[in-house]
């Protein structure tokens, strides 16, 4: 029997976007990856098959080994705030309208890296 193929690359991208759509779908994605590793595939093989980085699959395996299924759930991401409240957003907008030097930053113009560093430091 001839193997079936999805030839439309936009379909593949759409499928990958659907996986990223929600916390539950990302959990299921990691669970499937872990199952493939448990069945004998290597992390790089699973990563190539699922469209992830090999290091990501390795992280899933390590987190599963340490915390079981709870290790596959979404956790807080280091280095950036998970949620800003309205007051914090207003403050960021106010600071962006001013010169960086007014916020204690030694540059003439805001850029993404400078703003991100200021937000990390402040919040």
Quick rundown:
The protein contains 6 helices and no strands.
Task: Name a few traits of the molecule.
59% helix; mainly alpha; 123 residues; 2 domains; 6 helices
Write down the overall geometry. Answer: elongated
Question: β content, as a range?
Answer: under 5%
Number of helices: 6
Q: Total domains, how many?
A: 2
Given the helix and strand composition, which structural class is it? Answer: mainly alpha
Radius of gyration, in angstroms, nearest whole number: 21 Å
Whole-Å distance between the termini?
Answer: 58 Å
Stretches with pLDDT under 50, minimum 5 residues: none
- Overall number of strands: 0
Helix content: 55-70%
Structure description:
With 123 residues, the chain is an all-alpha fold. The protein has two domains: 11-72, no CATH class; 86-122, no CATH class. The chain is 59% helix and 0% strand. The chain contains six helices and no strands. It has helices at residues 9-19, 23-38, 43-50, 54-67, 86-97, 112-122. Helix 2 (23-38) crosses helix 3, helix 2 (23-38) packs across helix 4 and helix 3 packs across helix 4. The relative contact order is 0.07. The model has no long low-confidence stretch (mean pLDDT 85).
């Amino acid at each position: 029997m001839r193997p079936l193929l999805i030839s439309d690359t936009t379909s593949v991208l759409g499928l990958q976007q659907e996986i990223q759509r929600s916390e539950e779908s990302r959990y299921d994605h990691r669970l499937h990856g872990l199952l493939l590793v448990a069945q004998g595939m290597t992390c790089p093989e699973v990563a190539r098959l699922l469209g992830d980085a090999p290091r990501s699959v390795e992280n899933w395996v390590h987190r599963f080994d340490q915390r079981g299924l709870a290790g596959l759930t979404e956790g807080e991401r280091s280095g950036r705030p998970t949620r800003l409240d309205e007051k914090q957003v207003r403050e960021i907008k106010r600071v962006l309208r001013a010169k960086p030097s007014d916020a204690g930053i030694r540059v003439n113009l805001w850029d993404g890296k400078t703003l991100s560093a200021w937000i990390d430091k402040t919040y």
